[in-house]
Specification:
single chain, about 60% helix, Outer membrane protein OmpA (Probable proton motor MotY), 5-stranded mixed sheet, OmpA-like, membrane, 5 strands, 2 domains, about 280 residues, coiled coil, 60s Ribosomal Protein L30, Chain: A, OmpA-like_sf, alpha+beta
């Protein structure tokens, strides 16, 4: 006769030691924990991205967290491994954030330095340009003053008087020759440099011929000079002309040399009007 097993014996609980071993086996993490492996790879990537140099303290904390999690792999439960891996990941993210902030600061400092360099270079360029312009102006003024010497410039109470004795009108003519126009170039430049001063052009002749005719001829010659100046950009409103004929000689009309001196154009560049006194009078 076959004996059936007692169901009560099959359902008896396991010994306590065996139960503990079973629970421990179920709670342990596997030897390879993928989340930790991912954080380890991210740590290696961060090292190649220079995070360690840009955020050394935070990066070292992240390294220690990864090492601690690695040391517990295979012996810690899954919950503990998850917690340790999470801490390592957070600290690595903190290190990356600090490194990014450090890069931003470096970039900002670099931009500030570039801006200062550009401004400094611009100031130096401006100073160099100003020196160049000043030197060019000095040379131009020096050249202009040298050219104006041919006009026998003299200062009077009315202003600067320039005698154009080298303007050689033909007999009974008020037409400027090409040479006369060239000799008037320094006068044009001088008047351009004095835009606020009025100009008086006076024509003179020698005593040969009728006085009335000489006065009319001297007026036409003064106007010829005015027209040339206007053609060169000098404002017509600045210029007044007057023909004085033979009335104001500077030499004797008895000699040819004297008459040549008397046939002239005088240009007065008038002084600017003085401001009225505050007290009147």
């Amino acid at each position: 006769m076959t004996t059936r097993p007692d169901p009560r014996r099959l359902c008896r609980p396991l010994p306590a030691a065996a139960a503990l071993l079973l629970l421990a086996a179920c709670a342990s993490a596997p030897e390879n924990y993928p989340p930790l492996a991912r954080v380890q790879q991210e740590l290696a990537d961060a090292r190649t991205e220079n995070v360690a140099a840009q955020a050394p303290v935070a990066f070292q904390e992240a390294e220690r967290s990864v090492q601690r999690a690695q040391s517990r792999l295979g012996s810690a439960g899954e919950a503990e491994m998850e917690h340790l891996t999470y801490l390592a990941e957070v600290r690595l993210q903190t290190a990356r954030a600090e490194a990014q902030a450090a890069r931003f600061r470096e970039e900002r400092q670099s931009l500030v330095a570039q801006r200062e360099s550009i401004l400094r270079s611009a100031r130096e360029d401006q100073l160099a340009l100003a020196r160049t312009v000043a030197e060019e102006d000095r040379q131009r003024i020096q050249q202009l003053e040298s050219q104006l010497q041919q006009y026998q410039a003299r200062e009077t109470e009315a202003g600067t008087v320039l005698t154009l004795s080298n303007i050689n009108f033909d007999l009974d003519s008020a037409t400027l020759s090409p040479g006369d126009r060239q000799r008037l170039r320094p006068l044009v430049e001088y008047l351009r440099s004095q835009p606020d001063r009025a100009v008086l052009i006076e024509g003179h002749t020698d005593s040969q011929g009728p006085a009335a005719y000489n006065e009319e001829l001297s007026q036409r010659r003064a106007e010829a000079v005015r027209d040339f100046l206007v053609d060169q950009g000098i404002q017509a409103a600045r210029i007044t002309t007057r023909g004085l004929g033979e009335g104001v000689p500077v030499a004797s009309n008895e000699t040819q040399a004297g008459r040549l001196q008397n046939r002239r154009i005088e240009v007065t560049v008038e002084n600017p009007p003085r401001a009225a006194s505050a007290t009147g009078g």
